[in-house]
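re: ur question from earlier - yeah i can do the single chain one, its not a big deal. heres the input i used so u can compare w yours
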Amino acid sequence: MIILRTCLEYAERLRKIVSRNTLDTECMMFSGGIDTSFILLSYEKPENLMIFTTDLGGRDISYVKKILEKINIREHVIIRISEEEYEDSIDWVLKNFKTIDPVEVSGDIVHYMTIREALKRGCRKIVSGDGGDELFLGYSFLLSKDERFIREWIKKYSEGEARLPTVEVGSRLGVEVVTPLYVEETRSLAREIPLSCLIDPSKRFGKYFMRLYIAERGFPEIAWRTKDPVNTGSGSMYMLRRIVSRFIREMNIEDVYKEIENRMMFKPPTKTHTYLAWKMIRSSVDPPPIYLGEGSCPICRRRLVNRYCPFCGAYVDENKIIHHYTDEEF
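and the output i got, formated as tokens:
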């Protein structure tokens, strides 16, 4: 009981920080995940909110509906698009971010579609849940790490700057993205919270203190949901894979491989990479240059940044083992 009370006290401190940092923002990206649900429950007047959810066939929408059954808001905008419109969105992401990482592209498309729709409806500022995973251990691989690793992780992201994709998309569209979970006050709080309030006793969940607060507010099904990245929770990755399947059926894939190898100087590791590389060529977008020095990506030969390849999405861990998206992951 003492641990529970302590964790809820930290959650209340976070709620007050979020509330202060969202006072003048009445548009919000909402997935029904831990971060955006916590932010919604932190609003003093949710009835003034216009909320945007992109639904491309994932399971996020079911959680969104559960919380909105009990929370009164001004308007809920659900964004659904065709595969043709999705392909147009891919072109925008490729031109603006020059990446063929399937995880990055499918996630950025959700941010792009959501912010674009918000802009059409007059939103010049919009709230997102960015930064919560970095500060409060939202990534599942962190749950098995020892306390020293976790403290170093939190120190890194609370004292440095995390990459916030939604903010980057918003800046390109002329919309300010407000990130109340990643302001100076929350960074300081993250360094203070005990590990027992960040990871639950069974080590199944991060953001434990936030989940406890959501459950306390009457939403246990949301509080104890497993984490879905934005690309799978929204269904974006599934739509991308359907498009790739059609592409593979309709195209002479050997000719596509040859064209990519001639133009980009590498063979894509998956069918999804192949499709995105082909789209990049068709969109007349130049890929990042080949890098042959130390820190060259072993898959695409572009430059690694902190052992990660921004172009193809490969990651080389401390044991020099290569990790990358595969078509079988989703």
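The longest strand covers residues 50-54. not sure if urs matches, ping me
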